[in-house]
Amino acid sequence: MATIQLDHLRKAYPTKSGSGALQVLDDFSLTVQDREFVCLLGPSGCGKSTTLDVLAGLTKPDAGTVTVGGSAGWSGLTCGYVFQRPRLLNWRTVRQNLEFALAGKGAPRKSWLGKTDEYLRLVGLADFADAYPLSLSGGMQQRVSLARALVIEPDVLLMDEPFSSLDELTARRLRVELLDIVSTQKTTVLFVTHNALEAAFLADRICVVSQRPAKVVEEFDVPVGRPRAPEDPALVAIQAQVLTMLEPDDASPGDPRERELAMP
Amino acid sequence: MTTTVESRTPAAAAASNRRRRDAGGIWVRAMAAVSVLLAWWLTSLAFTGVVPSPLVTLERLWHIVRYEAFVSSVAVTLGRVGAGMAITVLVAVIVGIAMGRNRIVELFLDTFVLIGRTIPGLVWALVAVMVVGLNNSAPVVAVFLTATPLVVLQIWEAAKAESRDLFDMAKVFEVGRAGRLRHILLPSLVPSIVAGTKLGLTLAWQVVVLAELFGLGSGVGYQIHENFSNFDIAGVLAWTLSFALIMAFIEYGVIGRVQARLVRWRPATELKS
Predict the structure, then answer these.
(1) Which of A233, B38, B80, B271 suits B178 as a labelling partner, its CA being 20 to 30 A distant?
(2) B246, B81 in Cβ contact below 8 A?
(3) Chain B neighbours among A 176-235 (CB < 8 Å)?
């Protein structure tokens, strides 16, 4: 049971000048049920990525606990992480990049060829298995990174604005594929985005995060069955609802962050 | 209006362009070689009896190859260069990584590296011969002392630049320390290791020849010294030029090829460095 529980997380970073501290997380709590797809939606730089890093064990919180699957830490459950930037090994081929993750997970070597083929086909890169990442476009590199996270068939999938660098057509197709995969593999997903429509299309539940220090200020259930159509009026209505929620009364009207949020 | 369809793939077109450009380059290079030979020949005319003409030097080289210990001398010198560089690269990789990844090691060693880089190989060759003595170890030690700071500098900077991002990624995918070293740190350093080796090699063969000149009884440097003692300028030039050509071949032919293979993951435009 891959239930995620973040309790009262606190995290501050020292500022560049060294004088003060930047409080990124202050008493942040969130629960993601087993097999649930939760979107964290909020302005850029509000601490969403830090939340994922703390959850993945890459950043130590100053206080608070991370529980995955019932006991503290990860208790043997596997984590797939699609970072905001691809983070590929440029000196290894696309297939070897996937094998890197498979080796880390300890998957039997015999299964590697079939698995890498399967997931490369899924992200539309079957013909590029032997290419080196730097010969691919940014969007293709990001798809390799997605395949790398999926190929280990993780219990929990963490995604940090994975589609924001892709063209909309590719992103659309991958969103559909993603929903397909996580429902067959029964994956628990925590997905960070600043795109309200994307959140509405993907999520079972949308958690709207406030400006720094990050805090979940509102939650929206998305009671729309799957498969979903991106233009479904119910989803568009939820998007509109989420966007009104995001418009804080005291923000200046021209704040670029809000415009970003309204992006389709 | 019709558009012509480019049937070749972009990569093939780029390769063919490169070939065409290189074909032109061969002529320019040939012209350069001819002008050098011409200048040499004119100099030899101006200083008849002192500066040998290219032809005389070539004849002398032919004589050396046929009747003197050409192959064995070259082999001895190459062996010393190779041994010195092998130790240098091995130590430089370890020290460079340690300096790049550990602040205390860096503070401890950076002054030595920066000062060591400025000490001329000539001095190290002298010191090595005086301290180690007239044996095979002297040139190897001289190479090590001269080239190590330079190679370390390359690797140190690259190891330092390696970002946290990939290590974090490896951590998420539960790749252990050994895997991180083998798949992230070392491959990311390969370009600077090769570049450092090339740089070190240029110094290494000069230092070895110097050490041999200072009194070792074998190698190309020794042969140059013999010809110097007999005031045989053609002999000095023949030995020097032939060995320089061999080293150039090793640097650009052999190592260049190894480099192209090791960093084939970089886009072609970056391959030059």
Answers:
(1) B271
(2) no
(3) none
Q: Is the pLDDT of residue A255 over 70?
A: no
Judge residue A58's burial from the number of C-beta atoms within 10 Å of its C-beta, 0-12 exposed, 13-18 middle, 19 or more buried: middle
CB of B172 within 8 Å of a chain A CB? The answer is yes
Nearest to B169 among A83, A103, A133 (CB): A83
Residue A77 banded pLDDT, cuts 50, 70, 90: confident
What's the fold here for domain B52-270?
Answer: MetI-like fold (1.10.3720)
Query: Is B177 touching A (CB cutoff 8 A)?
Result: no
The CATH topology of domain A32-59+155-264 is Rossmann fold (3.40.50)
Q: Which two tokens stand for residue B101?
A: 């990844």
What ipTM goes with this model? 0.85
Q: For tokens 């030995």, name the residue.
A: B239
Torsion of CA B97, B98, B102, B103, to 10 degrees: -100
Q: Using alpha carbons only, how large is chain B's radius of gyration in Å?
A: 24
Asked if A101 reaches chain B (Cβ–Cβ under 8 Å), the answer is yes
Token pair for residue B61?
Answer: 């080289």
CA atoms of B244 and B201, how far apart (whole Å) = 12
d(CA B212, CA B140): 11
DSSP codes of every residue in chain B: -------S-HHHHHHHHHHHHHHHHHHHHHHHHHHHHHHHHHHHHHTTTTSPPHHHHHHHHHHHHHHS-HHHHHHHHHHHHHHHHHHHHHHHHHHHHHHHH-HHHHHHHHHHHHHHTTS-HHHHHHHHHHHH-SSTHHHHHHHHHHHHHHHHHHHHHHHHH--HHHHHHHHHTT--HHHHIIIIIHHHHHHHHHHHHHHHHHHHHHHHHHHHHTT-SSSHHHHHHHHHHTT-HHHHHHHHHHHHHHHHIIIIIIIHHHHHHHTTTS-GGGTT-
On average, the pLDDT of chain B sits at 86
What does the alpha-carbon distance between residue A89 and residue A219 come to, in Å, rounded to a whole number? 37
Region of B186 please: left (phi>0), alpha (psi -120 to 50) or beta: alpha
B271 in Cβ contact with B262 (< 8 Å): no
E-assigned strand segments in A107-230: 156-160, 188-193, 205-209, 216-221
Q: Where are the domains of chain B?
A: 1-51, 52-270
Percent of residues, chain A, with pLDDT higher than 90: 19
pLDDT greater than 80 at residue B22: no
Q: How far is A48 from A41, CA to CA, in rounded Å? A: 8
Q: Is A6 helix (H, G, I), strand (E, B) or coil?
A: strand
